[in-house]
Design brief:
This protein is mainly beta. The chain is built from one helix and 19 strands.
Length: 256
């Protein structure tokens, strides 16, 4: 669920309010507009934004930032882009060539993003937690729509890639984005081994109550076989907890 938390952070950083503080070496205020240039720093809704230049038009309610745009917000999340446009009247947002990093070294690289009313969109994006310059794996998709009221995200043309190879393709991938403990899919695990081949593990989380849960983790190892782990966790008091883990793995006939 961490990738979708990043998606939420991206738009929570740029959620519009009327109070805008602009600092720069050169600031020109004329009529109902403000032009800032050279070392621009903007304080906006709890976020600090740096840019090469900024323009704000009170008539259109548009705040336009260009150049090396970098935004630092809550949760120590960082957004970097070439251009950021915020409409302070209707809270719509458009971002060009955006890179967002957050917790667990997870990052999103997208050609663009925008927010309109309760729908959030990412375009031509990829997600990974590996080194950005040469990631071991990525999940790439052409477009993703996040529906805030329904707490649901739909990815279109999603591909899991390992280095330069597409492992599998899904025309649509729909997942819940609830930011709380709930039943659903967890983030998959990937690994490459000379002995066991490519490992793909897809954990499934079952949380019927606050006192106990179960996690089923089926996996495939291309040179070895298939199997799964089942982990049950429980808490029966403020100072007592435990877990039980069992597993089974079936090796292929040619595995040694």
């Amino acid at each position: 669920m961490r990738s979708f938390t990043l998606l939420l952070l991206l738009f929570s950083l740029v959620y519009a309010k009327e109070t805008i503080e602009i600092f720069a070496k050169t600031v020109i205020a004329k009529d109902n507009s403000v032009i800032a240039d050279d070392s621009v720093v903007i304080l906006y809704d709890g976020a600090l934004i740096k840019a090469d230049s900024a323009f704000y038009d009170k008539n259109t309610s548009l705040l336009i930032l260009k150049g090396r745009v970098e935004m630092i917000g809550l949760e120590e999340s960082v957004l970097a882009s070439d251009k950021l446009v915020i409409n302070t009247a209707d809270n719509s947002v458009k971002v060009k060539k955006v890179f967002l990093s957050g917790d667990e070294d997870l990052w999103i690289d997208a050609s663009g993003a925008e927010k309109s009313e309760d729908i959030y969109r990412l375009f031509d994006s990829k997600i990974s937690s590996c080194n950005k310059s040469n990631p071991d794996w990525t999940i790439e998709f052409e477009k993703a729509n996040y529906y805030k009221k329904r707490e649901f995200i739909v990815m279109e043309s999603a591909k899991l890639r390992f280095y330069d190879t597409t492992v599998f393709y899904l025309p649509y991938l729909a997942l819940p984005t609830l930011n709380k403990r709930t039943t659903g899919l967890l983030f998959p695990n990937f690994k490459l081994s000379d002995r066991e081949g490519f490992l793909y593990e897809q954990p499934i989380f079952y949380a019927p109550s606050n006192s106990w849960d179960m996690e089923l983790a089926p996996q495939i190892r291309t040179k070895r076989g298939i199997g799964s782990y089942l982990t049950t966790r429980f808490i029966d008091s403020n100072h007592s907890k435990g877990f039980l883990r069992v597993g089974y793995f079936k090796n292929s006939n040619d595995y040694e």
